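Final report, closing paragraph on structural work. Over the funding period we assembled a curated collection of sequence-structure pairs, and we close with a single example.
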Amino acid sequence: MKTKPVTVPEILGRKASGKKITALTACDYAFARLLDPTAVDIVLVGDSLGMVALGYENTLPVTMDEMIAHTRAVRRGLHQALLVGDMPFMSYQVSVEEAVKNAGRFIQEAGAAAVKLEGGQRAAETVAAIVGAGIPVMGHIGLTPQSVHQFGGYRVQGKTFLDARQIRQDARHLEKAGAFALVLEGIPADLAGEITADVKIPTIGIGAGPLCDGQILVLHDLLGLTDGFTPKFVKRYAELGALAREAVEHYIEEVQAGSFPAREHSYQVAREDWPAKTGKNCG
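Its predicted structure, as stored:
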C-alpha cells in the first residue's frame, strides 16, 4: 500500500522511469474503498458510469451533477490514488469559459485532483485554458465515446494513413496545450507505440496495445460485473457477477426453506427481569 497520495508530477515522472502506470475506473464509495489499499496509480470517475451504474445506453446522457455526485462519493473512499474526474458531454464543448468553470467544480465540489476530457486539436484551446486555471488535464484521443454518433459506433480509429496522422497530431496539440497524460483508446497498437515515443507525456491505453506507458480498464469489466458484449481489449480478471447471482439464489433458497436466519444470526436476550409466565401477554 502506498504511504503518500499519487501526484501529477509522479505520473509525469513515470515516462522517464519506465514504470508502467495502472489506472481503473470507480463510480462509488464502495469500489473506492476496495481500490484504496491497492497500488493502483490513477482512479478515473469515468462517464462510463452512465452505462455501468446508471443504465444509460451510452455516455451521452450523463450530466455534470451526476459526475460531481459520483466523484464526491469516490473521494470519500479514496486517499492514495490520483483521482481524475471525467468531464461529460457538453460540459466543455460550448465555450472555454464554461469548460473552465465545470472543471473547477470537479476540484472544488468533488475533491478531484485532475479532469479528463475528450478531443484532440479541437480541444487544445480548452485544455490550455483549464491548465491555465491551475487544473491538471488528462487528454483522451482515438476512439472518443462522446463522438459515438459521429464515428457511426464504437469503431477502431486510426486505421488509414490520414486518420493515423490526425491522431498523432492530436497528441502533439494536447501535449503543447499542457495535458499531463493522454488516454489512447481504440487505436492500432503500432500507432499507439508511435505516439508514445513521440510525446514527452505518459500515454495510457485502453484498446491500444502494450506499448503505452500505462493501461486503464473499466473496473466493472475487469471484475466481470457487466453482461452482453465484451470488447476485445477487455480482460475479465474475475467473474463476480456470476458469483453475486449465485449468492443471491442461495439466500433466496435458505429464506424460503427457513434455514436463514439461523440461531447464530439472531439476537438472544436474557429475560431474568421479565415477569413469570402467568398466561398473560406483556401488554
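The mean pLDDT is 94. Residues 205 and 215 are 5 Å apart (CA to CA). We thank the funder for supporting this effort.
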